[in-house]
Fold each of these.
Amino acid sequence: MLTNTESAGKVYGTQGNKIGNAHLKWAFSEAAVLFLRGNDDAKRYLQKLQRRMSKSKALSVLAHKLGRAAYYMLKTGSVFDEARLLKGQVATGSELDT
């Protein structure tokens, strides 16, 4: 049985519920692995995440970030911008020159 998490009469969510689409999670997890292949900036971002969490959790965070980027691109009709995805996370060589 699933129960609500409550404190002082406020409901904070449910415990034990699976949320989200498992197929999309798998697809964006695969996309994250492919995004890392041959992409040094993305690898540096992943290493930064791994300082705070495990490798699997860091890959999930990157997959989630790619999912949000895909949603934004579909919503606004814009194109993928890797620099914007990793903005503030990794200083690339071109950013250091300017």
Note: Residues 21-91 form one domain.
Amino acid sequence: MGTLGPMHWIIFAVVALLLFGGRGKLSGIMGDAAKGIRAFREGLKGDEPAAAAPPVQPLPHVEPDKDPIVR
């Protein structure tokens, strides 16, 4: 339990390569993530304004039938 097995070393190596490999900078990866989030937010806004929904009208009041209760 106290030692690192081969699977732990493989996971550690993959994480290290993702963080420091490729471009070599963690800030580059985070910058790309920020650009993706920004593009997602702009996509949610859309170009056309949303059509305003008509105001909600209350249901008409209907008098219940005055039938006597038969027991």
Note: The chain has a mean pLDDT of 78.
Amino acid sequence: MIGVLFLCTGNICRSPMAHGIFNHLVREANLQDRLFADSAGIDSYEVGQPTHSGTVSVLKKHGVIFSKRARLLTEQDGAAFHYFIGMTQDHIRALERVRLIAGNSRAQVALLLDYAPQLGVREVPDPYYTGKFEECYMLVNAGVRGLLAAIRREHGL
């Protein structure tokens, strides 16, 4: 199984959005037996909290039913995934640390929007502060679709 970990700050907005969209697209492509995803946060202040209602609402509006409880990125995550996908450069630094601690040199670490270069932006803004969940969805959706296409090419899926 090929694992993808999405990371954001608190794991209640952006990373669960990416996680939900990814799972939805994987089910549509009937690849559940080949791919799995999870999401986590780099800060502990939201651990145990449900996915933000703005994220749940925008996902539902686009036909994606998803919700989870926030969790913190752990050292064990460093060995468990093939792709570590962050929303900002701060997230990338955290992902690199856990990957290196685990000795997982084969795992790829990237910004989500590296997979959507046509957008002309590199980081996904946090809708927790702006309330722009629809804008966030558009960015995350494009990045997740690009990521999934890249994974399918790389692994012949």
Note: The first helix runs from residue 14 to 28.
